[in-house]
Design goal:
The protein is mainly beta and about 140 residues long. The protein contains one helix and ten strands, in the order αββββββββββ.
Length: about 140
Amino acid sequence: MFYKKMILGMLAVLLTACASTSAVPSTKIAIDLQDFVFAPASITIPANQPVTFTFTNSGSQEHDFVIEKISVTDVKMEGSMEHHMMGDSASEYDLHIATPAGSTSELSFVAAQAGTYKIFCSVPGHKDAGMVGELVVTQ
């Protein structure tokens, strides 16, 4: 009887340990910032799950990735430019990251609501030249 209780206790500890380490993996998406094109131009991610975008600017100019209005949490950035062509107006966007030509940056976040959101490059003239796309957040 003692051995049965001991085995059941050990199983309970093991199952608890397994359950506590099951973190939700991050969706990782590579995005190439070319001169006046996002590749891919349409991106689909799950709502309420962590995502990480890795931006590679293969263009000859600075580019950025902007979503004006989106509900997000846990936003983290690496490699983004501190002094960006947009200056102080960049703070008006809910998601914004700038990447110099020939560089890489990373943006991690959790999108709180399903929907379709317009993405664009806010560097003057780039949006008008066609550097636009969409982010689709699914339930």
